[in-house]
């Protein structure tokens, strides 16, 4: 049976608040996967893998007996199973081009179908014991101006199904550091200052290969920010979001029949130097790409067939490319 897709917030609401969770954070390995910071494929690069397992029942015997029992998951075994899945992934695909999504799917299969552990007939994780499995794959060196690129695959399991019944997929650009003219105060109009942007696109599960277009997405975000001169972070965020819809998501939809119009773009913008006695003021907003939910986006979708994706890498300014192609 196929897996239904949902936005992460809806999936987490359906799963409910977890009361027992086992997590492994930033498990380190290196793999030939995705693209590097310059968009090159078939390059080995460092990979950080995090996994979160939400259990159906409290730890019970594990906490009362102070032992690793069937009411919990041994985090050491979980870590080994993840690394074994990565090893199998590397052996199967070698230096063939593979997406981050493919790696996430392979790790989930290894944990829930017993493909990559010593006892294949007994999976480490099952829908009987687990409600939610979240796998995040981070490439810390895959961004030119940020702290990395990640994908998060969230899978919700129902007791009546052998596999996941609901899934969400998020692509994130982390902490892009860009200088731009931004601010209301007179002194802020005199020189550029640093803006730190994090951009999440929820809904990428609809088209797995699209997750590795993060270099092109980063280019759009970075050039849009550095070429702008807004007074408020709110206006800048809205502008960046509409650029993502127009020059990234719509061309993606046009080029891939498996894509969707229903994405959620969540953007966080920080100004580290704006408030003297604070780390940074932060503005965060979520923009819907679905034309039925966002009238401004509907105007863009009405001309979807005419939308073009900027080349990567783009030589020169993005606003000049847009002016020459929109005319």
Automatic annotation (TrEMBL):
It comes from the Eukaryota. GO terms for cellular component: cytoplasm. It comes from Lachnellula suecica. SMART domains: FolB (SM00905). Belongs to the DHNA family. It catalyses: 7,8-dihydroneopterin = 6-hydroxymethyl-7,8-dihydropterin + glycolaldehyde. Its EC number is 4.1.2.25. Pathway: Cofactor biosynthesis; tetrahydrofolate biosynthesis; 2-amino-4-hydroxy-6-hydroxymethyl-7,8-dihydropteridine diphosphate from 7,8-dihydroneopterin triphosphate: step 3/4. Keywords: Folate biosynthesis, Lyase. Pfam families: FolB. This is dihydroneopterin aldolase. GO terms for biological process: folic acid biosynthetic process. It is an enzyme of class 4 (lyase). GO terms for molecular function: dihydroneopterin aldolase activity. Residues 171-287 form the Dihydroneopterin aldolase/epimerase domain.
């Amino acid at each position: 049976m196929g897996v239904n897709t949902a936005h992460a917030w809806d999936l987490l609401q359906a799963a409910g608040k977890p009361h027992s969770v086992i997590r492994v954070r930033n498990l380190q390995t290196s793999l030939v996967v995705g693209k590097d910071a310059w968009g090159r494929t078939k390059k080995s690069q460092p990979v950080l893998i995090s996994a979160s397992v939400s259990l159906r029942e409290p730890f019970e015997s594990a906490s009362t007996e102070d032992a690793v029992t069937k009411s919990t998951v041994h985090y050491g075994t979980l870590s080994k199973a993840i690394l074994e899945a990565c090893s199998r992934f590397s052996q199967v695909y070698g230096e063939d081009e593979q997406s981050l999504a493919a790696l996430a799917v392979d790790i989930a299969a290894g944990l829930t179908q017993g493909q990559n552990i010593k006892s294949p007939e007994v999976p480490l994780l099952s829908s009987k014991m687990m409600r939610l499995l979240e796998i995040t794959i981070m490439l810390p060196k895959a961004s030119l101006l940020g702290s990395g690129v990640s994908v998060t695959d969230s899978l919700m399991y129902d007791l009546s199904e052998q596999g996941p019944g609901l899934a969400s997929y998020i692509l994130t650009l982390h902490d892009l550091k860009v200088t731009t003219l931004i601010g209301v105060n007179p002194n802020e109009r005199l020189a550029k200052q640093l803006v730190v942007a994090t951009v999440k696109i929820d809904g990428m599960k609809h088209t797995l290969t699209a997750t590795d277009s993060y270099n092109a997405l980063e280019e759009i975000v970075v050039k849009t920010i550095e070429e702008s001169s807004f007074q408020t972070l709110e206006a800048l965020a809205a502008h960046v979001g509409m650029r993502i819809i127009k020059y990234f998501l719509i061309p993606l939809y046009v080029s891939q029949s498996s894509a969707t119009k229903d994405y959620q773009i969540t953007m966080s913008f920080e100004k580290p130097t704006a408030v003297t006695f604070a780390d940074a003021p932060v503005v965060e907003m979520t923009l819907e790409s679905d034309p039925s939910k966002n009238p401004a986006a509907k105007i863009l979708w009405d001309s979807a067939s005419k939308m073009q994706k900027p080349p990567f890498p783009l030589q020169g300014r993005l606003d000049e490319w847009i002016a020459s192609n929109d005319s």
